[in-house]
Specification:
CATH architecture of the largest domain in chain B: 3-Layer(aba) Sandwich
CATH class of the largest domain in chain B: Alpha Beta
CATH superfamily of the largest domain in chain B: Response regulator
Distance between the termini of chain B: 69 Å
Number of helices of chain B: 13
Number of domains of chain B: 2
Oligomer: heterodimer
Order of helices and strands of chain A: HHHHEEHHHHHHH
Number of strands of chain A: 2
Strand content of chain A: under 5%
Structural class of chain A: mainly alpha
Shape of chain B: globular
Number of strands of chain B: 14
Strand content of chain B: 15-25%
Structural class of chain B: alpha/beta
Largest sheet of chain A: 2 strands, antiparallel
């Protein structure tokens, strides 16, 4: 294994990590503050990608696509919160899971109805379509851009949470929501705001994923599993935890896929290694989660409750 | 109350006549269609259905001069659901012919229940090896291929090009393994590496980096549906497309090219069908398919269109009767013109057909399109026919 390959895989892991962060930030807040399990979070990601692809096709401008994806995602978050989620905060998790699973089916059918069952077209903006050479191995420039945008989102979230009044309320809400509302804060408005923030971030993730992934019905579900793992590892309700856990999961998943089959080959028969490699690699993140849960049941960066 | 016996007699007569009247209008011929119409792979089944329906439309809504009613069912890529649907089609709808079937796992589940019930099954996509060889059935006809055959053409091509270092990739499931073994069977050499990825994996950046570091002469992949869109996009973005030849099957096709467009230009595919094949029936098929559905037909659509034409040719010979042996004999003759070129049935009732090298190039207007380069395998029988006991 050469140094350049190692560097590239590090970048790949980082890129997956920041993408996971954009998806888990909203989800962890919704889970932590409203105690609401939102399986439909992946739908906002999918719809964000569709909004971006449609806007890009219509306008030809990636910036317009970005605005549409962010606004669309945010708006969708508010709509879901007002029409459905707010009525379920007091219900138990099973009801929430059932209802949001229904939303998954609804949005996947909606996407199929509007855009068709086949994937839709979305390409990398021409200015970012090149590659960068790192020690002789080429790396897509667009993926650097994803890392940059992801880190900017993380900094933005951090500033919002730790430096603003809204952020203070969000932090307070994640520790003791009843007390926050007792102190006269419009908790309904705060909830809608958090949902729309999550939607907007999912929209950004959808926008950034559109050019590298196939934009099609159901694209939100495979990634949702990783996102759930991230928020559990990071500690539910913790943005900071989501960030570090997302990077860890991104790196572990990438390293597993890249190096595990190679490593296994040293010990066992080649054909078995070929079959077992990807299977074990896809388990790695779950094993990591199980380990964390065994040692730190509330995640690596738990929110301290009252 | 007195008049009631007469009344009811009259009523009975009217009802009787009424239903007789309906009967005289002739019962439409019922055909069952089973395909994967929902989920990430839903586009494949939709193409099959659209191809079949266009075929029936071209025949004036009739097969063998009989009005046809197609009963469409979605198996959702679930074998157990496929079996349920097949039972429903046979027992409740009383169909005598079922066509379609998108995925091999569904095919494996429903092949026996359908053929054992004495119902004709005209498969227009999936062709798993067990039903091609030992498990072949007199009631099963394929307008597609055996899973291995689909991948043999690129194996031959890679060997002929003299590629020494070929890197293979496929999803980690049965059809993925069949794909690579089909390729290797014809390639003969030892591949540089074989990588299996998780099914429906969205991101291949880690694998593509490994691939790039291995410095292969050529890459062969099998990534059907959305996986193909993901892989080709990321391969192109890594700057590899055009530098390291990308050979493939079922990865870029009529259902995924609209999502890739220029990104896929340069991909080489091995395929039994291409929309630019030069024969009159294909020209008509492609033109009308584009007009009606606003997209280019895939091999799935073409094979299903062929299924309609095959059924029509056989039912014409039997004057619309669905008696087991005569219809079977008529089907075996394959007396129709396939949109994919030469077509006849082998002893296992799978086609002996051509496989082409089809590149993603550009058409006259500069749009990304499929361009047939050469016929890699001519009149090619699948490798398992000899294991089928049928003569």
């Amino acid at each position: 294994m050469t140094l350049s390959l190692f560097l590239i895989q590090l970048l790949n892991g980082l890129q997956l990590g920041v993408l996971l962060f954009m998806l888990s930030a909203g989800l962890t807040l919704v889970f932590g503050i409203m105690n609401f399990v939102n399986l439909a979070h992946g739908c906002m990601y999918m719809m964000g990608a569709y909004f971006a692809a449609t806007a890009l096709a219509a306008s030809g401008s990636f910036i317009v696509a970005a605005v549409v994806a962010v606004l669309g995602g945010g708006l969708l978050g508010i709509v879901i919160e007002r029409l459905m989620a707010q009525h379920l905060y007091m219900r138990d998790h099973l009801d929430q899971v059932l209802a949001t699973f229904g939303l998954i089916l609804f949005f996947n059918e909606l996407a199929r109805w509007i855009w068709g069952a086949s994937p839709v077209f979305m390409s990398v903006p021409p200015a970012l379509s090149g590659t960068v050479s790192i020690l002789g191995v080429t790396y897509p420039m667009y993926r650097f851009f994803i890392i940059l945008v992801g880190l900017l989102c993380a900094v933005g979230c951090w500033l919002l949470i730790s430096r603003t009044r809204v952020g203070m309320l969000i932090r307070a809400g994640s520790v003791n929501p009843t007390m926050v509302s007792a102190l006269g804060v419009n908790i309904g408005l705060l909830n809608a705001l958090i949902f729309s923030l999550g939607g907007a971030l999912a929209g950004v993730a959808g926008l950034m994923s559109g050019p590298i992934l196939s934009v099609q019905p159901g694209m939100g579900e495979p990634v949702l599993i990783l996102v759930m793992i991230v928020i559990v590892i990071g500690g539910i309700g913790s943005i900071q935890g989501a960030f570090y856990a997302a990077l860890m999961v991104g790196l572990i998943d990438t390293a597993g896929r890249a190096f595990l089959p190679m490593l296994l080959r040293e010990f066992i028969d080649r054909s078995i290694a070929q079959a077992a490699g990807p299977a074990i690699a896809s388990m790695l993140t779950c094993i990591f989660m199980a380990t964390v849960l065994a040692l730190r049941p509330r995640g690596l960066f738990p929110v301290k409750n009252g | 109350m007195k008049a009631s016996p007469i009344k009811s007699a009259v009523l009975a007569c009217m009802l009787g006549l009424g239903s007789l009247g309906v009967y005289a209008q002739s019962q439409p011929l019922k055909i069952g269609f089973i395909g994967t119409l929902s989920g990430p792979a839903g586009a494949l089944g939709q193409d099959q259905y659209d191809g079949l329906m266009l075929g029936i439309e071209h025949l004036g809504g009739r097969l063998g001069n009989q009005t046809v009613q197609v009963i469409k069912e979605d198996d959702q890529l679930k074998p157990d659901l496929g079996v349920e649907i097949a039972k429903k089609l046979i027992e409740r709808d009383r169909v005598n012919i079922i066509t379609g079937v998108t995925f091999s796992n569904v095919m494996m589940a429903i092949h026996k229940p359908i053929t054992d019930a004495g119902v004709f099954l005209i498969g227009s996509n999936a062709g798993p090896t067990p039903i091609t060889g030992k498990g072949c059935s007199p009631m099963y006809f394929s307008t597609s291929w055996n899973n291995d055959s689909l991948h043999e053409s690129m194996g031959v091509y890679a060997r002929e090009q003299g590629y020494k270092r070929v890197y293979l990739m496929a999803p980690n499931y049965q059809a993925g393994k069949d794909a690579l073994s089909g390729f290797k069977g014809q390639y003969k050499g030892k591949p540089l590496d074989e990588v299996y990825t998780t099914v429906n994996q969205p991101d291949y950046s880690a694998e593509i980096a490994q691939l790039q570091a291995a410095k292969p002469d050529a890459v062969y992949v099998f990534y059907p549906g959305g996986m193909g869109v993901n892989f080709v996009k990321q391969y192109q973005q890594a700057g590899l497309l055009g530098k390291v030849p990308l050979l493939s099957a079922s990865t870029v096709d009529g259902t995924t090219l609209p999502a890739l467009k220029d990104i896929a230009v340069g991909v080489i595919t091995g395929s039994p069908y291409s929309p630019d094949l030069d024969n009159p029936q294909n020209k008509k098929f492609v033109e009308d398919f584009r007009k009606k559905y606003n997209r280019v037909p895939s091999l799935y659509a073409a094979q299903s269109y062929d299924a309609a034409m095959l059924l029509n040719s056989a039912l014409l010979k039997t004057s619309g009767k669905i008696d087991r042996e005569p219809l079977r004999a008529a089907l075996k003759q394959a007396d129709f013109r396939s949109v994919a070129g030469p077509f006849r049935f082998n002893n296992n009732q799978f086609p002996i057909r051509n496989f082409y090298r089809v590149d993603v190039g550009r058409d006259g207007s500069g749009q990304a399109a499929f361009v047939t380069r050469t016929t890699v395998l001519k009149d090619h029988p699948d490798p398992h026919a000899s294991q089928c006991p049928m003569k």
